[in-house]
Amino acid sequence: MSRPLIGICAAIEQARWASWDVVVALAPRTYATAIQTAGGIGAILPPDPAVTEDPDLLLDRIDALLLAGGSDIDPAAYGAEPAPETTGQRLERDRFEVALLRRAIERDMPALGICRGMQMLNVACGGTIDQHVPDRIGGSIRHREVPGTFSEHEVEVEPGSLAARAIGSGRAAVKSHHHQGIGRLGAGLEISGRSAEDDLIEAIEVPGRRYALGVLWHPEEDARSNVIRSLVEAAEQEVSG
Which CATH class is domain 5-240? Predict the structure, then answer.
């Protein structure tokens, strides 16, 4: 059986190694490792203006789409002014991912958004972003305790939802690192998971699609998680179907 090809949308960042200090397209290796462990093949997808104009140029060549975490979405993508805490925006990445995600949903192609990727799913459906969650739920937010680390907390998901099928239960401990979240919910989306401690929206999905899910936590950082495996399994059905 062919191994499904999962496209991982890349971040655009300034990176330094050896004698180099350049702009790169990258994704943490944990995404590809999780995909490989689940039986898939991961491919990094850098923003491409031609694909932004015609997403099928790329979507015809992959079996599922994974929108990874990263820096903040440019508020221009959802018609807002940037808050002081919003940093690292790359509008070219935002436009690329919105175009891919909207078309993937139209095609009913499996798509998973992780952290920033979940927020992008909301933006792609016309929603907005809460630009600094601690302002709303208090400065002791457990979702981002120490810069550069992942905190652990619990989420509860709706019975029978795609989120519940993806994690394999109705409640799970997850790893998080973020300061933004969902503002106004996008059209056609359903909330399917929340933080057990502060009711923050943790999972959204598109009802009526085979697999269109966003989670605010980072399953690629947790060997116990079944979420990325569930995406690969959905992609395998795409290959065999």
Answer: alpha beta
